[in-house]
Write a structure and sequence with these properties.
The structure is a single chain. By secondary structure, the protein is of the alpha+beta class. It is built from two helices and six strands, in the order ββββαββα. It has two domains: 32 residues, no CATH class; 91 residues.
């Protein structure tokens, strides 16, 4: 990309295109998706906003995935590896009520984190998909 050339976003593939200033207003094929577009320079702030929205959704989806996987890891740890027994002075092992309570709380927190991560991920994936569908409908109606 040349810093002095105007830039625009392709309405079909959302690719960023830079073009010589003398071509503005002409209809040419997009170099990325080959759809014919009319070249029109976009303000830099508007272009930055479009890429920021995409980054926002990707960040939220990434955090939801981390929360989901962290919740699963928490459940696995407390269910399979957390020791709730203590050794008595006579050498036998007994279950400790406090450790059992901590295990139960750990499992509940892990299941909660897993569900929250799952629902947040699904919600933002749907919102992102609806945005793409709206963009596609707008493209079809503009043809």
């Amino acid at each position: 990309m040349n810093a002095t050339n105007p830039i625009m976003t392709c309405p079909y593939c959302k690719g960023i295109i830079d073009f010589p200033k003398n071509l503005e207003g002409e209809s040419v094929p997009c170099p990325l998706c080959k759809s014919y577009i009319r070249l029109k320079a976009e303000p830099q702030k508007q272009l930055a906003q479009k890429t920021d929205d995409q980054g926002f959704f990707d960040t939220i989806l990434g955090l939801a995935a981390i929360l989901f996987l962290g919740g699963i890891a928490c459940v696995v740890y407390f269910f399979f590896f957390y020791n709730t027994s203590v050794k008595d002075p006579d050498g036998t092992f007994d279950f400790n009520i406090g450790l059992l309570n901590q295990r139960e709380c750990g499992i509940i927190i892990g299941v909660g984190a897993t569900l929250v991560g799952c629902f947040v991920g699904i919600f933002f994936a749907i919102v992102k998909a609806v945005g793409f569908i709206e963009d596609a409908v707008a493209k079809v109606s503009n043809r």
